[in-house]
């Protein structure tokens, strides 16, 4: 077996009819791996642990198993809607690499899962069996990923065209990466509500967010610019990054979304289609109001 190749390169692809961002986040965020990874189905002794940083570069997922051994996978590179790369270390093995690539299709995204690296000397003789087992894992995992992403439940209420009076609000504009939206919103809402408390003012209704800039294409920078705020009865004295604003009076289109936050795009798509059919033109960025905490 000393004449067998010491290098392996195994890959498998699948087409998924879902929003590419949903698919990307299923892989970029280790908390989502339980939705689709194949190994827990095969080995009941696996115990997984996720790093405090749940997603993106530097996050890791480690495991212990009576049947499959112990190991760690760490994200070393993450380019939104383009690729995610990993280092994988399994006790008693050479470390090797993994990579997921994402290519937009007409109806969704093509995902390719690849492992590559060097086999330990004593494993080279059974390289064909090793690659076959890895391909089976790919097929099972990608099938699970496709099933999950294509069948996330959601519902949109009736779309209503109504009138909206101008209303005051306070807000902060800030930016972050797509991985850090949740943390950034928590930070901004905390600052806003603390300011209202200091000024002895109360918010009206639920907080809102407007996305001023959001990456949509592979070549886009991983940067989100957002406006977080809440409506109030009257303007308040402002300080620092907190500003006063007023909504525009006129006709508005509104709908409620029921389901995971990652499926919200479906309601946005339905509202855009409604506008197209009714020859309506949008004049502002959408307001998103959180009735409960987004999952």
Blueprint (SSEs and pairs):
Elements: E1 7-16, H1 20-28, H2 39-42, E2 47-50, E3 60-64, E4 71-79, E5 83-90, E6 96-105, E7 108-118, H3 127-150, E8 154-156, E9 160-164, E10 168-176, H4 181-198, E11 203-213, E12 224-232, E13 243-246, E14 250-254, E15 257-259, H5 264-278, E16 288-289
Antiparallel strand pairs: 1-7, 2-3, 3-4, 4-5, 5-6, 6-7, 8-15, 9-14, 10-12, 10-13, 11-12, 11-16
Question: Overall pLDDT, averaged?
Answer: 88
Radius of gyration: 24 Å
> Could you name the ranges where pLDDT drops below 50 across 5 or more consecutive residues?
none
In whole angstroms, how far apart are the ends? Answer: 51 Å
- What is the 3D shape? elongated
- The number of helical runs is 5
Order of helices and strands: EHHEEEEEEHEEEHEEEEEHE
Instruction: Estimate percent helicity.
Output: 10-25%
Total beta strand runs: 16
**Beta-strand fraction estimate:** 35-45%
Descriptive terms for the model:
single chain
Describe the structure.
It is built from five helices and 16 strands. The chain is of the alpha+beta class. Strand 3 and strand 4 form a beta hairpin.
């Amino acid at each position: 077996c000393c004449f067998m190749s010491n290098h392996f390169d195994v890959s498998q692809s699948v087409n998924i009819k879902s929003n590419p961002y949903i698919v990307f986040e299923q892989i970029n965020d280790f908390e989502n791996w339980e939705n689709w990874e194949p190994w827990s189905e095969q080995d009941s002794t696996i115990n997984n642990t996720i790093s405090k940083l749940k997603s993106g570069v530097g996050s890791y997922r480690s495991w212990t198993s009576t049947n499959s051994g112990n190991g760690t996978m760490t994200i070393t590179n993450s380019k939104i809607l383009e690729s995610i790369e990993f280092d994988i270390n399994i006790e008693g093995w050479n470390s090797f690499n993994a990579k997921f690539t994402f290519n937009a299709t007409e109806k969704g995204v093509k995902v390719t899962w690849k492992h590559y690296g060097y086999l330990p000397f004593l494993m080279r003789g059974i390289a064909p069996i090793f690659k076959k087992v890895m391909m089976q894992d790919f097929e099972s995992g990608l099938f699970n990923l496709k099933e999950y992403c294509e069948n996330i439940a959601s519902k949109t209420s009736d779309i209503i065209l109504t009138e909206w009076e101008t209303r005051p609000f306070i807000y902060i504009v800030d930016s972050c990466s797509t991985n850090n939206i949740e943390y950034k919103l928590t930070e901004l809402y905390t600052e806003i509500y603390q300011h209202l408390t200091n000024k002895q003012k109360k918010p009206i209704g639920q907080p809102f967010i407007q996305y001023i800039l959001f990456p949509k294409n592979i070549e886009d920078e991983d940067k989100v610019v957002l406006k977080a705020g809440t409506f109030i009865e009257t303007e308040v004295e402002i300080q620092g990054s907190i500003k006063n604003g007023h909504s525009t009076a006129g006709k508005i289109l509104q709908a409620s979304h029921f389901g995971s936050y990652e499926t919200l795009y479906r309601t946005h798509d339905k509202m855009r289609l409604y506008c197209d059919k009714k020859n309506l033109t949008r004049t502002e960025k959408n307001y998103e109001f959180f009735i409960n905490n987004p999952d």
